[in-house]
Write a structure and sequence with these properties.
Oligomer: homodimer
CATH architecture of chain A: Up-down Bundle
Largest sheet of chain A: none
CATH class of chain A: Mainly Alpha
Number of domains of chain A: 1
Order of helices and strands of chain A: HHHH
Structural class of chain A: mainly alpha
Strand content of chain A: under 5%
Chain lengths: ~80, ~80
Amino acid sequence: MQWFDYFGYFGSFLTSITFVPQVYKAWKSKSVGDLSTWTVLIVVLSASVWLVYGIAIASGPVMIANSVVLLMALLLLYFKFSFKS
Amino acid sequence: MQWFDYFGYFGSFLTSITFVPQVYKAWKSKSVGDLSTWTVLIVVLSASVWLVYGIAIASGPVMIANSVVLLMALLLLYFKFSFKS
């Protein structure tokens, strides 16, 4: 491992947890009016694309990070359509 | 190029534009109360970490995508502290 590999792993970890506080906040407040639906949709699509890429190159960190992000983004999308703004 | 490289480039493109609609929405509405400050802070940190990684491995797509994400996240952070919730 080179020094920058640790940045890659740390980046993967941070990417994984990015939307966890947002999901928690949205769930607690039941308020998602300020969230951009487009941003949530782009995250769903980008995490899906990265997940396919991660599987194709057999990269554990890419697969794990984007699986978590995809799950969180799908939850936010569900909240967007189920909570009143 | 293999087929999955296109997924990597498409993923980079999508990652780049992820927060553009969110910044636009926040700027238009001047309302960011539903955005998680933690999520924004994690995006700032993760984009910085990925940027260092991208520079270290000399990956254009990683550098470009995370530069845009970092800029957008810094704008959202500024909005979080300047707009009243």
